[in-house]
Give the backbone structure.
Amino acid sequence: MVLSDRSIKEALHEGRIVLRPLDPADIQPASVDLHLDRKVLVFSNSRQPYIDVKESMEQLTEMVEMPDENHPFILHPGEFVLGSTMEHIELPDDLVARLEGKSSLGRIGLVIHSTAGFVDPGWKGNLTLELSNLARLPITLYYGMKIGQISFLRLTTPAERLYGSESLGSKYQGQTEPTASRSHRDFPPASN
């Protein structure tokens, strides 16, 4: 069951959902608008000939920062970068969340997530956005702009193992800025 605006407000008031900063005007009928933070993780294609999912991706990207809301980041056609929500989000044990794009931005070819639109119970942190430009023209991205929306769904029962539990090996708990893939952690260490 998707939470309505009334249920979202109740969960926020009770502290069951944490979303900060929060402008009450961003609460929609069944979601909350999210905003783009100032840091963007850009892929440096000249550093490596390919992406090896068994290797750390740290050296493959570099962080770019928008100085203010008047100086945009230009996302070129076909370009893929990682951004982040301004909002810090925390979920209780009986809710999951879905991250979706804004229809106004989708209509110009901006996609805000490739696959990572699901937020597990127990999540704490800012969400990394997978930003792609499907249009044939560059798109400007501004610090603080509405970039997406998050909706909340109730589980049938509270989850037994929350995201961030040591037994799950959660790789992104507590992130505060765009975070490169940590897929290499899913593989056993290479033997020499």
User: Anything to note?
Assistant: Residues 5-14 form the longest helix (10 residues). The mean pLDDT is 92. The longest strand covers residues 80-90.
